[in-house]
């Protein structure tokens, strides 16, 4: 669901459904989610893939890149080397999941974006069980690779919306400073879900990166 506008554009691209998204139990650590993605790569026998991850998916991609030297490239979208979660989200999931989903949707887009994008993000989140969403946010809150990301060696594209409230631009700037072989693209008038809000600009940036590999 997250990558629907990219799957239409990048023929042959694959999007991985993480455990619990939306079926089955989820995980509460980034490492466990990373293991599930690595298993998918092995199952599909993918050789030298370019791994793309957004937000928590970016944390998963970072985790894989730090121990897998067989990646052809890495694309980190609206993510960070450390991801702290607003306590209101953690509390709210247990108290009123629907309201928190709407709040996350609102925080996930730029004020310049069509409000319907925020509504769709909230609807997508509600397809995931609240206990899975809670585990996701706990996993993000515990994630910290601030002292490790400089060890990433593969060529990396870092993309962030200029109006990202969930993972501000400074998070991406830190990644760019630490990852030697990296480039940074900041897309104006986009928030946390830049690949949905400004999909044409996002797709163009990824396409240029792929062409450079």
Note the topology:
Layout: H1 4-7, H2 30-43, E1 50-54, H3 56-65, E2 73-77, H4 87-95, H5 97-107, H6 115-126, H7 130-142, E3 156-161, H8 169-178, E4 182-187, H9 194-197, H10 199-212
Parallel strand pairs: 1-2, 2-3, 3-4
Please tally the β strands and state the result.
4
Q: Please tell me the total number of domains.
A: 1
Q: How would a crystallographer describe the biggest sheet?
A: 4 strands, parallel
CATH homologous superfamily classification: Alpha/Beta hydrolase fold, catalytic domain
Task: Please report the number of helical segments.
Answer: 10
Mean pLDDT: 96
If classified by CATH, what would the architecture be?
Answer: 3-Layer(aba) Sandwich
What gap, in angstroms, lies between the N and C termini?
Answer: 27 Å
Radius of gyration: 16 Å
